[in-house]
Task: structure prediction
Amino acid sequence: MELAYQALQKYFGYTSFLPLQEEIVKDILLKNDVFALMPTGGGKSLCYQLPALLLDGVTIVVSPLIALMKDQVDGLKANGIAAAYINSSLRFDEIQHIKLELLENRISILYVAPERIMLPDFLLFLQRLNISLIAVDEAHCISEWGHDFRPEYRQLKLLKEQFPQTPLIALTATAIPEVQKDIITQLKLTNSKIYKASLNRENLFYQVKPKDNAYHQLLQYLNLKNHKRDPGIIYCYSRKSTDDLANKLQKDGFRALPYHAGLGADLRAETQDKFVKDDVEIIVATIAFGMGVDKSNIRFVIHYDLPKNLESYYQETGRAGRDGLRSDCILFFSHGDKRKIEYFIEQKGDETEKRVAYKKLQEMVNFCECRTCRRKILLDYFGEACNENETNCGNCDNCLEPKETIDGTFIAQKVISCVSQVRERFGMSYIADVLCGSKSQKIIRNLDDTLTTYGTGKEYAKKQWQAFIRELVQLGYLKSEGDKYPIVKLTPRSRDILSKKERVLLTKPAEEVQIAQKYFDVDFNHGLFEILRSLRKELADAEDMPPYIIFHDSSSKVMATHFPRSLSDFRKINGVGESKLEKYGELFVKEIVDYCKEHNVEPKAINVHDYNPAPGKTMKTSTLQETLELYKQNLTIEEIAQKRNLAVSTVASHIEKLILSGEEISIDKFVDIDRQEHIIMAMSILGSERLAPIKEKLGDDYSYEEIRLVRASEMSNREIA
Result:
């Protein structure tokens, strides 16, 4: 290895290796196949660049991005290493010149895209070269179980057939155990040496914040004295939100630029160059940005929207703090973002891809909602064992500010007993329903209302039971299996709880505050009310529903009286359930904030005393409340309609609104289970935004009322699953 150390210092300026680099280089020089899992900033590139200088021949590097190729080649040339790339950005004559240099053995490292390397003509050309090593970078792209599956990578399995004597190294920074095995199998690595560096980035602080007027939250962070001039990346889900956010930040005095695939290649390269050279501090980007950006002092990575999976999250947060100094990784989380991602998952044609995407999204949501150490969850996900005795990492929000806990042993016993009694066949929502004593048709049909655990958990609400179950999964006392609709199963540790060998602490559930409604006839801002009414109409038209289903006038009047400027205040308005909060909250709060700024209006505090009826007035019972009371008497929709002298469609509309506002209503006695499943299947194929295509597919035997109720129930269940 003496020659390796000399080359390391001569070309790269280092006198020592990072963990695992020396061992990997040694194996490659012995012509062994290698699989390497190393974190961002762990020095993956050097593992094949250094051997390329010591082996006789050319090293071929398969890389997925043009920008990444260019950066790597520029860096190698700056170090005095003969390197080149061949991709679609080059002219024909430029490619021919590089090929000539390769034939004359004047290039040590060649970067190519996976699509090009498998072209028959290009493979024939490569056969004429003395290839000493093949490196497949971002190797997780070959696995359909990975977060960034690229079909063109699948063709790389032929490399071993074409070059059987050439050692091959596969490298990735993000691969769960299943993906690691798949990479080795697909690339046909022979007796490969497997190296896994620790993925624990101890200098990164992980924090998840409930999304509540996200731009205001972002400004609060950026305006802190020690962050004003710090370089950072803010990730958004769409190109439009990327452009909008960058424009907002520019107007507020920040040096920020957008970066996404919709911008021209030259502009993207210019933006990246400005960021690397500290000409701008903030890049607002889609996932298109970051790969190959060698900037060590990125002090924060903020996810303005929910990432699709933990692999993307880990890879993107890994771009922070590569210099080893403390850096922040902040994620703004909302279920509304989850539903956006679910919509795009439903557009996928391949059922396997759908299943994988749903499973990964659920794992991402579990990470956001976890109450235990976030670092431990990340490392567990990637298959890295943690010290069971070290439950506090000291550098994530949950460890630095732990939630108040209660003795949850009896709670855990109830949950585990219930999971066992339903024979490990159902998900969190169903388990919570059994514990709460729900009279749903599904529970009664399964005879689960006869279980000893049925109705034993009425001291907590359904959502609180679901939070307990989620935490027990995170603690390893239960496990969750499946993709779109995961089921809860027992683990070996479940028995320790039932046998009272272990005591478990669970997070004390937060108590929800529901604000009563007051009638506002005069004291509301008519200008804002009209703006909100227009927004409501626009949204209703887009969803093919009456405006009052979105919000009643009474709710809009409260908004135009108290001017709620955050989602937490907006939630206090009666008629704003969690589903509506997540679907419409940000849109309405934005209109309110903009109106207040334009008209210099100050918000009014929202508290329960403000909602007492005025003296001399009697609080009326709303029509929805009357329907709810009759529902609680176990009446059918037809019976409620007859009793109230209303149309069946009107009562069905009441039930829909009550479900969407957060009331725990089972639709099983209104819509047969089998019919529900047919409707859900139709919605999964066609989407649930428009009812007409669903009705057309199902036929005249199904009513719009049934479809509305099933849609509302699915939205509610998805929100709390």
In short: The chain has five domains: 2-196, 204-400, 405-505, 526-611, 623-720. The CA atoms of residues 415 and 554 lie 40 Å apart. Residues 623-720 form a domain with the Arc Repressor Mutant, subunit A fold (CATH 1.10.10.1390). The chain is about 45% helix and 10% strand.
